[in-house]
Amino acid sequence: MELNGVRVSRETQERLLHFAELFQKWAKTINLVAPSTIGDLWSRHIADSAQIFQLHPHTDHWVDLGSGGGFPGVITAILLAEQGAGHVDLVESNQKKAAFLRVCLRECEARGAVHAIRIEEAPAVIQHCDTISARALAELDLLLNYSEPWLERNENLHLVLHKGRDYARELQKARGRWEFDLVKHPSVVERDSVILELSRIRRLI
């Protein structure tokens, strides 16, 4: 099996298939993603989430903010299991979604843990991370605010964020308050979408 042109093992394929089964089951009772996108689960959500991991496959410690339906946090945790190293802390305040995420991590034997807390509370619980991911969560300026406590502890922290066609406006707004190096990766899954990779982040005001 290949994800975005990258071959994964049969074991990882089985884990991803089991995740998809769990997702379809739970999505019947709780709102995990927009209902109109469930039919495109593999391309719209799973393969799209895998792009994040493929940019930083050797990151030791991830934090995924607003993990929701498991994208990209559970997918990252499954792909880390193939390597046998690394860990993802998934932050999701909705208790029903957090329960779903815990089941996914356990049954897919993925490398992660779920924290059913508000994002603002997470830095007090999760002391350190190397890379922060988020998908369809908030504007860039707010995501940088959320990340600031971890930035203060790790100046080499990276943010890897899925963004839609309005990303240029978000960048302009964020650059009024923040300085950062930016690499823009075109999405290999969704046209007009990008993955923004930020590093050397520093607050200006």
TrEMBL record:
Pfam families: GidB. It catalyses: guanosine(527) in 16S rRNA + S-adenosyl-L-methionine = N(7)-methylguanosine(527) in 16S rRNA + S-adenosyl-L-homocysteine. The keyword Manganese does not apply. It is an enzyme of class 2 (transferase). It is found in: Cytoplasm. GO terms for molecular function: rRNA (guanine-N7-)-methyltransferase activity. Keywords: Cytoplasm, Methyltransferase, rRNA processing, S-adenosyl-L-methionine, Transferase. This is Ribosomal RNA small subunit methyltransferase G. PANTHER family: S-ADENOSYL-L-METHIONINE-DEPENDENT METHYLTRANSFERASES SUPERFAMILY PROTEIN. GO terms for cellular component: cytosol. Belongs to the methyltransferase superfamily. RNA methyltransferase RsmG family. S-adenosyl-L-methionine binds at residues 66, 71, 119-120, 135. Its EC number is 2.1.1.170.
